[in-house]
């Protein structure tokens, strides 16, 4: 991405003061009289958050008449045409909470999702690999056998979701909506007061350029009454608005993969129930999570040190599978040994003892807990990848004529699978804030119109991001010292006090 010019100070100039400020205003060096194309809402970023916002605005009678544009660097034609065989799954999968699903239903996007590729789960088994203490969240206990099982979350490939959102937007018609994909925002500047035209002096103006063959040609300059940054962790919109972020890198990577299983997950009762498993592995740098997918598959998110991630990615499929099975079954010292075993290229001849032999031998001497995931028998080719894990929180979600949503506003540790859910929470709130402003004849870009949005979202996001951060830190202290003791006490206490557990279950539902 090309560097985005920063406007160090982007003051909001109220109409009564603006004539006094004209001399200090930025002006374009070239073509100052050419008025840019004017839109009510311009969203930068066509990831799930940006497309979710567009779909929400298009689905409400109050906001469907707004003139909206979305600009995305990637080619969204590929996202529309995305198609995989039923036994293959993308490695980017998110667990969507019931409140995210109900938002997607409300805006008409859920019916466009390929449900055969999505998997609900009703139970979560979480345990500490160091102390063995365990907590289980079983929603089936809360419902009668005659009711539908209550869902903790629904596993959905991000690509399936993006395709569904695009399809929902297409269904809403072509009037007043422009999607400029294969197009990048190269810089953002303040507008000017056009002597013979509109006063755009307090409006952001985007300079855009194609990154490939575009479906629809974007104008080179676009003015936004409200500019929404749904443009991810390095948000150019956030930089333009001069909004700072707090945060740190965890120095951990999330290793993801699509796994094939030996047999369906056999939850004893009721039939059809599916379970997600997460085991904290403090000595290896974070938890390993196994989340169910349809057709006897699962998706893996293993948060671990950068070195361990590199090691896991270097293994052959057979060895990788063995390490995943080991991570849910062996003791910490055994695992630490196995993750330092010589790599396959040199190991087979020099030692003659493979990861598989090692696991088979060690399992004979390791008592197994009652609840562990089914054995993994395969890993989809090309699905093993890793992503750096980071924490970021913007100091503000709004500034005059600007709002940030999704990863542009906050990035959190994935151990609770909440990042995208928070993004959809933002989108639901911002779209209803815009709807309210339209219904009350307010200017949708005015800071007073926007204030409702951070009031609803900022603390919620800070609380969940902070809780994930604390959990990450707590579960990164290896050994059996006081922290491990406090940890196990924590999990055991939570598991035994129905009130506390009920509270946590409600929060996990979203
Ligand atoms: C390993 C891992 C597992 C996760 N698991 C879960 C989970 O189970 N549940 C969950 O809720 N969340 C999960 N998350 C988090 C989730 O993936 C992210 O929060 C989510 O994808 C962010 O979506 P977004 O639309 O905000 O941003 P992004 O998906 O980053 O989209 C930003 C878009 O902006 C575009 N863009 C950027 N700059 C420009 C520009 N200058 N011009 C035009 N376009 C631009 C980019 O091309 C991109 O498409 C996980 C994250 C990781 C790393």
From TrEMBL:
GO terms of molecular function: 2-methoxy-6-polyprenolphenol 4-hydroxylase activity; 4-hydroxy-3-all-trans-polyprenylbenzoate oxygenase activity; FAD binding; oxidoreductase activity, acting on paired donors, with incorporation or reduction of molecular oxygen, reduced flavin or flavoprotein as one donor, and incorporation of one atom of oxygen
PROSITE patterns in the record: UBIH
InterPro entries: FAD-bd, FAD/NAD-bd_sf, Ubi_Hdrlase_CS, UbiH/COQ6, UbiH/COQ6_monooxygenase, UbQ_mOase_COQ6
Location (main, coarse): mitochondrion
Subcellular location: Mitochondrion inner membrane
Membrane topology (UniProt): Peripheral membrane protein
EC number(s) given by UniProt: 1.14.15.45, 1.14.15.46
GO CC field: extrinsic component of mitochondrial inner membrane
Assembly and interaction partners: Component of a multi-subunit COQ enzyme complex, composed of at least COQ3, COQ4, COQ5, COQ6, COQ7 and COQ9.
Family: Belongs to the UbiH/COQ6 family.
Protein name, per record: Ubiquinone biosynthesis monooxygenase COQ6, mitochondrial
């Amino acid at each position: 991405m090309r560097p985005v010019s920063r406007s160090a100070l982007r003051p909001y100039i109220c109409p009564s003061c603006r004539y006094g400020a004209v001399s200090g205003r930025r002006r374009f060096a070239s073509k100052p009289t050419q008025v840019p194309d004017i839109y009510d809402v311009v969203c930068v970023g066509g990831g799930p958050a940006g497309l979710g916002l567009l779909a929400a605005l298009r689905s409400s009678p109050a906001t469907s008449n707004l003139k909206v544009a979305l600009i995305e660097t990637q080619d969204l034609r590929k996202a529309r045409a995305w198609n995989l065989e039923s036994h293959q799954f993308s490695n980017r999968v998110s667990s969507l909470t019931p409140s995210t699903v109900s938002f997607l239903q409300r805006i008409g996007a859920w019916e466009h999702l390929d449900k055969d590729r999505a998997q609900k789960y009703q139970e979560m088994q979480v345990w500490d690999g160091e102390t063995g203490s365990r907590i289980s969240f079983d929603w089936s206990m809360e419902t009668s056998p005659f009711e539908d099982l209550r869902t903790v979350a629904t596993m959905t490939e991000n690509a399936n979701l993006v395709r569904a959102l695009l399809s929902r937007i297409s269904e809403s018609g072509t009037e007043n909506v422009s999607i400029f994909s294969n197009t990048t925002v190269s810089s953002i500047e303040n507008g000017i007061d056009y002597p013979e035209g509109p006063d755009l002096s307090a409006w952001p103006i985007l300079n855009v350029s194609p990154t490939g063959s575009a479906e629809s040609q974007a104008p080179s300059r676009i003015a936004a009454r409200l500019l929404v940054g749904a443009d991810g962790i390095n948000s150019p919109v956030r930089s333009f608005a001069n909004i700072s972020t707090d945060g740190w890198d965890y120095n951990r990577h999330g290793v993801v993969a699509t796994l094939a299983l030996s047999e369906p997950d056999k939850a004893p009762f009721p039939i059809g129930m599916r379970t997600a498993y997460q085991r904290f592995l403090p000595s290896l740098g974070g938890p390993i999570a196994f989340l169910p997918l349809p057709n006897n598959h699962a998706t893996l998110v293993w948060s671990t040190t950068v070195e361990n991630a590199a090691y896991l990615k270097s293994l052959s499929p057979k060895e990788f599978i063995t390490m995943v099975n080991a991570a849910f079954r062996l003791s910490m010292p055994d695992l630490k040994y196995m993750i330092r075993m010589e790599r396959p290229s040199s190991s087979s001849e020099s030692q003659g003892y493979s990861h598989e032999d090692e696991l088979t031998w060690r399992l004979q001497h390791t008592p197994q807990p009652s609840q562990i995931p089914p054995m993994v028998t395969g890993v989809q080719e090309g699905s093993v990848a890793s992503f750096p894990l980071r924490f970021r929180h913007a100091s503000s979600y709004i500034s005059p004529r600007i709002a940030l949503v999704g990863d542009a506003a906050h990035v959190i540790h994935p151990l609770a699978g909440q990042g995208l859910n928070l993004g959809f929470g933002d989108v639901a709130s911002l779209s209803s804030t815009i709807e309210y402003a339209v219904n009350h004849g307010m200017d949708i870009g005015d800071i007073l119109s926007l204030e409702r949005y951070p009031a609803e979202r900022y603390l919620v996001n800070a609380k969940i991001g902070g809780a994930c951060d604390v959990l990450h830190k707590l579960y990164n202290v290896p050994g059996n010292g006081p922290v491990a003791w406090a940890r196990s006490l924590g999990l055991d206490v939570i598991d035994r006090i129905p009130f506390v557990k009920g509270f946590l279950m409600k929060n996990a539902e979203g």
